[in-house]
Design brief:
The protein has 297 residues and is mostly helical. The protein folds into two domains: 88 residues, Orthogonal Bundle (DNA polymerase, domain 1); 177 residues, Intergrase catalytic core (hpI Integrase, Chain A, Orthogonal Bundle), CATH 1.10.443. It is 59% helix and 4% strand. A three-stranded antiparallel sheet has the order 1-2-3, with no helix packed on it. The model has no long low-confidence stretch (mean pLDDT 89).
Length: 297
Amino acid sequence: MEEQLDTLIDAFLYYMAAECGVADNTLEAYSRDMARLRRFLILRLLPVGEVDMNDLIEFVIDLKEQGLEISTINRHVASMRMFFKFLAADGYIRRNPSALVNYPKMWRTLPDTLSVEEVDRLLSVKPRCPLDVRNVAIIDMLYATGARVSEVIGLMLGDVNLDFRFVRVTGKGSKQRVVPLGLAAADRVADYLENIRPRLARDHSGKEFFLTRTGRRLDRKSVWRIVRKVGVAADIRKHLSPHTLRHCFATHLVERGADLRSVQEMLGHASIATTQVYTHVDKDRLKAIHRRFHPRG
């Protein structure tokens, strides 16, 4: 049984790589997902040809009981459905037992967000060296625009207009959007652009906006380290990452009455449903306030 299952999984992964041309990272994810499915089937002594829909629903429940995030479980379901679809199409099994297995509904959760006061503290860290000026400018850009870390490190000089205080952001699928830049953020970014970037620029620098100390484009890991470093200096005890600042951007806007369509456009969400998570955050905040202060809360 194990040998047959391994052969089928290998055939599936080869099909995904050779015929579907999936990226290496995607193939690795499929391989990890197949390893969990393999373990599940072997522990239950289930031959592939005898698996039914109830078995696969039990597999999904088992993933949930392992404490996996719902997004990870949904990816496993997608891999599982692709696997059984492949087996059915190539005649390894008579029917596809995964055809009616639905994706678990995404629950609305967010990582920690910072309060406005905590963000103020983060942005008030005093620079001790020229690179600190750049670091706080990056953090202010992340919070002021709600941009993803990949979008901020991808900014070019022509993307930032400090006269009109707008930033042109290139998001997923090379889609561009224009996001306003607040006055305080514009001043801090201008300080970096006028006083720090010329010191960092080299012949090979090109037109990248944010540069490393050697004049090259920053990478994601560098920005993660920068955010955490400034967070320590500001005594922020919560989990903090560049994406936290994106959530802060949206949460603080919604808390102050911004309409969802505007927030959706500034975040670059393709669907309003993705942005609606922030209405849940706001409701949770109101419930917490009610519980804390209402005499019968």
